[in-house]
Design brief:
mainly beta, four-stranded antiparallel sheet
Length: about 120
């Protein structure tokens, strides 16, 4: 059974930084794309950043230049480094991985940015 464990959320001031981590376990198959989504109150879940197994990345326009995504294929981890945080980055952040065309989600971790 695939499990995702997220960590690193919390409270930050505008302009500050946070790093989110996600560790996947329980899969007998290689993990494809890994990434992060977020959902703010009253809004739909949206893509923040995704990284392919080979390392290519795709980031939402709203976070380009501020956020970076990393993965370690040996450890099955994906990290999201968030710099220059803004109040509009406040949301629940969800880890997402793709295995054999199936998506798996973490439970989410709250990120709150105060102005």
């Amino acid at each position: 059974q695939v499990q995702l464990v997220e960590s690193g959320g919390g409270l930050a001031q505008a302009g500050g930084s946070l790093r989110l981590s996600c560790t996947a376990s329980g899969s007998a198959f290689s993990i494809g794309a890994m990434g992060w989504y977020r959902q703010a109150p009253g809004k739909q879940r949206e893509l923040v950043a995704v990284i392919a197994r080979g390392g290519s990345t795709n980031l939402a326009d709203s976070v380009k230049g501020r956020f970076s995504v990393f993965r370690d294929n040996a450890k099955n981890t994906v990290d999201l480094q968030m710099n220059s945080l803004k109040p509009e980055d406040t949301a629940v952040y969800y880890c997402n991985i793709q295995i054999a065309l199936r998506a798996y989600w973490g439970r989410g971790t709250q990120v709150t940015v105060s102005s």
